[in-house]
Design goal:
The chain is α+β, with helices and mostly antiparallel strands. The chain has helices spanning about 10-20, 25-35, 70-75, 85-90, 100-105, 155-160, 175-185, and strands spanning about 40-50, 50-55, 55, 60-65, 75-80, 95, 115-120, 120-130, 150-155, 160-170. β2 and β3 (about 55) form a beta hairpin.
Length: about 190
């Protein structure tokens, strides 16, 4: 059972704009189970929560996800370990931080084993991601700055924070659309 706070007003409109298909964590599980052709299906949700280290606010974007996020996005760790299945199952209060978060929150100390406060909860830092840079020049699309990201177990994110966006990232989007079409064909018509 997941306890979720509902978004209203402008926040709800922005969440709908960001994720118009409304794919949820449960949907991601169903897709992974039903579509054996997917190499991986990775649920991700963006959550609200002020990030603090001591009395300082740390600029960061907080996401809940699963261990599959790292290989799907080709994230590399500078130190530590990424989220694992046990973190998800235990709803562990752990986090993986981006390089910019490390610089802002822990400029002169090793962050591993230290804590960050996100919202009202304390999270133990278990890893720091490698600095990720986007080469300058002409690009077809904008890439997000993942150096300001913080990753939590998705189970913690969904139960403890206000959800901004939920999405599932399929490896092959065309196959994903075919799967959804098949799923909807099997649904009984509305009465």
């Amino acid at each position: 059972q997941v306890n979720r706070r509902s978004l209203t007003g402008d926040l709800a409109l922005e969440a709908q704009r960001q994720s118009p298909q409304g794919v949820t964590y449960g949907d991601a599980h169903a897709i992974a189970t039903l579509y054996t052709g997917a190499e991986r299906v990775v649920p991700v949700c963006r959550v609200f929560g002020e990030v603090r280290r001591g009395s300082s606010t740390v600029p960061a974007k907080v996401f809940g996800t699963t261990p599959g996020y790292r290989p799907a996005t080709r994230l590399r760790l500078d130190v530590g370990r990424f989220l694992d299945d046990e973190d998800i199952e235990r709803r562990a209060s752990v986090c993986v931080i981006g390089a910019a978060v490390k610089r802002a929150a822990f400029p002169t100390e090793d962050p591993i084993g230290q804590t960050l406060k996100i919202g009202d909860l304390e999270f133990l830092v278990i890893a720091v991601m490698e600095e990720r840079s986007v080469q300058t020049g002409r690009t077809m699309f904008a890439l997000p700055d993942m150096n300001e990201d913080i990753y939590l177990p998705i189970t913690v994110a969904m139960e403890s924070f206000q959800i901004y966006v939920e999405q599932a990232i399929p490896v092959d989007f065309a196959s994903f659309l075919k799967l959804f079409t098949k799923l909807f064909e099997k649904l009984p018509p509305d009465e």
